[in-house]
Give the backbone structure.
Amino acid sequence: MGLDVRDSKDLPASKTEEFYDTVLAPSFVDSELIPRAEFLADLNDPRGETVASVALGDAGEILGGAVGQWFPQCRVMLTAYLATRPGRRGDGVGGKILRAVAADWQRRVDPLLIVGEVEDPRHHTDIGFGDPERRLKFYAAAGAKIIRVPYFQPAIHADGDRVPHLFLMTFAVADECRRGDHGIDAAPVRGFLAANLAANEGSVDPDDPATAALLDAVSGPTVELLDPKTTRIDP
């Protein structure tokens, strides 16, 4: 099976809309997914901080894709969404997309970190959008590591809630960001956490207990990386 991963800007607008409708919408709960109109507007923003890569099969059919959000102030790329079309999970498409978009983003913006938000399977179950345990194993097999912070997804809707009990995982780490065998420089992580909160919630409230715990975890010079395949993750 062939797989052609293309930047959404190189595709007709109808393909990008189809990607949202057939891949993103069936793969994420409403609290985790930005509205369709906002997604399309972000892709057309001249600042270019939101990018989408769409994976096409041999016949031009959409098989999956990924959406990245670039934080230039700290050189961190957030993999906001990565998904395969329902019915195509488990056949290797997801791994190919992850490798392709990571390589493309490294060429384009030279990030210190490429990160992603992954549900902690001890607190999340399959409610029709994919199995969190299987998803964590997928990222572990791809070499992703858990950044040791009490992560939550900021509220991405004005009247929405945060999504707690997530892992913030590294999909790629630049050599200049590594600190020993099991650590990374805390500065870009700290910058990303603050910028992501501000971008989604409008501000960073240090008096909020969850925010305070999150920022405290990266207050030192380094932050630890945990291997989900070999490390026991404490509750």
Q: What stands out?
A: The longest strand covers residues 163-173. The two ends are 41 Å apart (CA to CA). Strands lie at 4-7, 50-56, 62-71, 76-84, 113-119, 145-153, 163-173, 183-185, 222-226.
